[in-house]
Model the fold of this input.
Amino acid sequence: MKTTGFTLSSYLARVGLSKAPEPDEDGLREVHAAQVFSVPFENLDIHLGRGVSLEPEQLVSKIIQPTRGHKDS
Done:
């Protein structure tokens, strides 16, 4: 199996959570809200003629690594 570079600690840091929430409905709400407010939805690539990849490595890169729209970029 290929490695994607994803680690739970890097994801939690990216979305601003200090620890993993409980694996229940409230925890899912917490993760969802954290991601919505921390990782911008980017739909510009299609309009710029760039393809959209669903390769795990590229998805991890887009979500985990701060890029466009991130306050530290």
